[in-house]
Write a structure and sequence with these properties.
The longest helix has 17 residues. The protein is about 40% helix and about 15% strand. α3 packs across α4. The chain is α/β, with parallel strands linked by helices. Strands 2-1-10-9 form a 4-stranded mixed β-sheet. Strands 4-3-5-6 form a 4-stranded parallel β-sheet. A two-stranded antiparallel ribbon has the order 7-8. The chain is globular, with a radius of gyration of 20 Å.
Length: about 300
Amino acid sequence: MTEPSALALLAEWNDTKADRVRPTIVELFREQARARPGAVAIVDEHRSLTYRETAELSNQLAHHLIGRGLTAEQIVGISLGRSAEMVIGLLGVLQAGCAFVPLDPQWPKPRRAVVIEDARIVLQLNSGGHTKEEPDALAVDLDDWQFGSYPTEWTDVAVPGPALAYVIFTSGSSGRPKGAMIRHEAISERLLWQSKEILGFGHDDASLFKAPLSFDISINEIFLPLVTGGRLVILKPGGERDPHHLLSVIAAQRVTFTYLVSSMLDVRLEIDSGPLDSLRHVWCGGEVLTPELYERFRARLDIPL
């Protein structure tokens, strides 16, 4: 192959431009809440919420944040465990026109301090109080819902596609953690491509949210169902480390999409593939996927991996 033809082929392969409208997560979620208000949107170990209830609670939080003086693209730290409250927090932040950054409650204080400083966090959503190093004036505790007096209607904040949606920090294994700034239109492109071209994800589907919020695949786990009218099934904190519990949730909630690292997929196939029969798609990454594991998966489950 000549150099010009090789370059032409590379240009063709790398032309990923897609000609489509990319509504923001906020717009896509509102569309589903209006169309399917009574459908279940979120399920965690304590309760389930319809699209109407999820919209109303996140709207009340958004109005509260706006009342606190937060403005477009200011950064809110999410220091919450995996729960329905966390998801309401994310939606509330985005509907207020702000952006979020994961601030894992389990992180060591030095890492939290780096993220708070570098991301220029103006406020935190917490659960169960906050540390002495992080002043009261910068925190909103969601343990006891205090926002019932705020409007349940949508805010009038317009969120443009190029606006900042969230900041996610690297592990810091090669030095000081670095924050990547992600725009709304980038998330929308990923979700639209994933739901329409890869998964065919829709009203009858359910995604399992089991990754830490600080791990970027969590954004897909959380928002994929909420922008397509499906169900978001939230695994309890620590549940991802118990293969039997994870399998029971997949079976009970009829989860159709999940993301697994290959070592966890290996363990689950060793236990039993029966509870996995609701799955339509499994995504696997983060570790080496061996041909042997792939063949075992295909022998047990005739679905895309």
